[in-house]
Amino acid sequence: MFIDRMLNQGSTPLLEQVVNFTSQRHRLLTENIANVDTPGYRQKDLSLGRFQQMLVQRLDARDGGARGAVRFDDIRSEVERPKRGILSYDHNNRSMEQVASDLAKNGLMHNVAIELLRKQYTQMEMALKDRLT
Question: pTM value?
Answer without folding.
Answer: 0.78
